[in-house]
Amino acid sequence: MKLVMHYLNRSVIALLLVSCSSLSTAKKIDPEMEELLSMDFANLLLLPMASKRVQEIDVEPGIVRVISQAEIQAYGARHLRDVLDKQTSMQIIGSHFVPHNTTSLRASASTQEDDTILILINGRPISSTKNYDIYQSFPLSSLKQIEIMRGPGTILHGAVGSINLVTHDVKETPLSTTHLSSGDFGYEKKSFNINKNIEGFDLTLTISEHEFDNEMHQVYDSQASLFYFIDIPPVDYQTSYSYKNALSTLKFNTLLGDFKINSFYSDGSVLHARPYFDLNSVAFEPVDDGLGNDIGNESDIIFDIELVNGFESGPDIVFETEPESGFDNGPEVIFDAGSDEEFGNFSLEESSSLSTLEYKRHFFDLGYVSSDQADWQIYANLSYLATEESFLSFMPSSDYISNVNTDTYIAEANTSYQPRKNIKLLLGGRYTYRKALVTTRVPFFILENTKANNTIRLFYSQLDYGFLNHFKLISGIQYGDSEDESLLSPRISLITQINTNWNSKLLYRRSYRQHSITDDEIFTNTLLGSSTEPWAKFDVFDAQLNYIDKKLAVSITYFNSSSNSTRPSDPLTARGILSQFTYLNFNKIHYSGLEFEIKSKPTRAFQLDANITYQKTKDSAGTRNVTYAPKAMIKTGFSYATNQGLIFSLFNSYFSASALQNNDEFVNFFPLGNNPEAKSYHLLNANVSMQAGIFLNNTALNNIRLSLSIDNLLDEEIWFPSIQDIDVLSLPHHAGRSIYFNFSYRFK
Amino acid sequence: MGLIDAIFTSIKSLCFITLLICLSLTFSSLSFSSPDQETEQAEKKYSEAKLKAAVVFNFMRFIQWQKAASRTGKLCLITQSPDYLQAFSYLSGKTVKQTTIQLAHLTKDDLDINTPQTNGKDKCQVLFTTKDKHSIDKKTLNKIVSKDTLTISESDNGIKNTNTMINLINHKNRVAFEIDLTNINPGLLIPSQVLRLAKEVIQ
Question: Where are the beta strands (DSSP E) in A371-444?
Answer without folding.
Answer: 376-393, 401-420, 423-442
